[in-house]
Amino acid sequence: MRKLLFTGFIMLGLYASAAQQPNILFMLTDDHAVQSIGCFGTIFENYDPTPNLDQLAAEGVKFSNAFVNNSICAPSRAAILTGKYSHNNGVRAWEEFDGSQQTFPKLLQDAGYHTVLIGKWHLHSDPTGFDEWTILPGQGDYYDPKFLDAKHDRKNPIQKKGYVSEIITRMAEEIIRNRDPKKPLAIFVHHKSVHIPFLWDERENDWLEGETLPEPPSLRDSWEGRPAIVTAHNKVPNIEMLHKNFEDGIKQKKTKRYNDPAEKSMTIAERNTHRYQYYLKSYLRTAKSIDRSMGELVAVLEDEKMTDNTVVVYMSDQGFYLGEHGMSDKRWAYEESMRTPLIIKHPKGIKGATVELFAMNLDLAPTLLSLAGVDVPADMQGRSLAPFLGGKEPADWRDHAYYRYYDSKGYNIPQHQAVRTDTHKLIYFPEADRYELFDMKTDPVEMNNLAENPEYRETLQKMQKKLAEARKEVGDEDEDVYPIKR
């Protein structure tokens, strides 16, 4: 496997001294599927879904095998902040984040950065490590959202008129334009998009209208040989179930539900296909505001003459199913959920590079600290990606990604552990004591479970050993079924 592909040339000086600390723009989004972003390769590329993110990748480095340790909003965000796995940062599922612990924004703050957070926090506690913060309560709303800051308690939020992505972008622009020129700025722009229910900016009303978008190959997956998900849902996921989950999300938000009179004359199969188009277009239209925000904030950096001294990062807190395997949402350790988009542009780094080695959400903390010239604490479990930005492959880089999902009480999804290597993925379900094994070279969409195939017994044993070694390496060797409380 080719590990690092790049065009352009290597530039030196990525690591900062105290006098040269770069500004940092870190955009974190919610549930943005890798397979919906043009530069990562998408079946929707003819519709140009993400021109600004594609441009960012052309000017920086994209990590095509970036994974999260735990595909839920809060655990992933806690891992990003701390550079540690869930069992070490205390957020396995729904727990309140302990803001007294070490985070990389605190360390940037100690190193002289002015740190600002705007948007979704979703960690059930007030942010720490930020000189200024304005956050959405919980998930927040798409239209006329309420915000909290250090001056307003949770019973007295501030309401702003408009669409949430536009509001967050304008607040970020104001911070950038009015920054203290004597201090480096680290601004964290955390969008609500593209979390369910998919409610888009009215500017996208006509985009994709009249188009018939391609369907993912696994949309009508039969799930043969993979009992875990069938057991969890008491049936095979399908298009109708996917759309029901979407509709339930809209109903919970007291938003006008989907209703198309044209369906009255359709067969069930035609109706399901029709509804999938609505689901997919709703998702892509909602995600469009994220791409617009990145383009506008990059333009602000250029206008402020900050481009030559600002690191720009784009990342989602996890992936998302766009109907693959008949599913919506995330959580499972399958590729669409476990993978996440990651793009980093360093003004002195290489351009147009693709890194295929495994990156993790845990790596963002040590990466941004090292780029800022701040010592990376020894207890951070991620590794700095900075060498890749200069065109180098670090020695002894990880050869796998370790994943663990803890919450068996919500969403009918059993607890599971997984290890993903270049060639295979093993998922273990401790409550049922069952395995799923996939050959990622011949079966990248994970349709054929090899765990009970006698011809793959040796491969299964090797991957079982690999999973045990991965758990030991990160210090996650507690009981196989964790007693999550809700």
SSE blueprint and pairings:
Elements: E1 4-7, E2 23-29, H1 51-58, E3 61-63, E4 66-67, H2 73-82, H3 86-89, H4 104-110, E5 114-120, E6 132-136, E7 146-149, E8 158-159, H5 164-177, E9 185-190, H6 227-233, H7 239-252, H8 268-303, E10 310-316, H9 335-338, E11 342-345, E12 351-355, E13 359-360, H10 364-371, H11 386-389, E14 400-405, E15 416-421, E16 424-429, E17 434-439, H12 457-474
Parallel strand pairs: 2-9, 2-10, 3-12, 4-13, 5-6, 5-9
Antiparallel strand pairs: 1-12, 3-11, 6-7, 7-8, 10-11, 14-15, 15-16, 16-17
Helix pairs in contact: 4-10, 5-8, 7-8
Helix fraction bin: 25-40%
Mean pLDDT: 92
Q: Order of strands side by side in the largest beta sheet?
A: 1-12-3-11-10-2-9-5-6-7-8
**Total of helices:** 12
Q: How many β-strand runs? A: 17
Largest sheet: 11 strands, mixed
Cα end-to-end separation: 43 Å
Strand content: 15-25%
Radius of gyration: 22 Å
- The topology string of helices and strands comes to EEHEEHHHEEEEHEHHHEHEEEHHEEEEH
CATH architecture descriptor text of the largest domain = 3-Layer(aba) Sandwich
Low-confidence stretches: 6-12
- CATH classification class of the largest domain: Alpha Beta
- The CATH homologous superfamily name of the largest domain equals Alkaline Phosphatase, subunit A
Would you give the CATH topology of the largest domain?
Alkaline Phosphatase, subunit A
Shape: globular
Count of the separate structural domains: 2
Structural class: alpha/beta
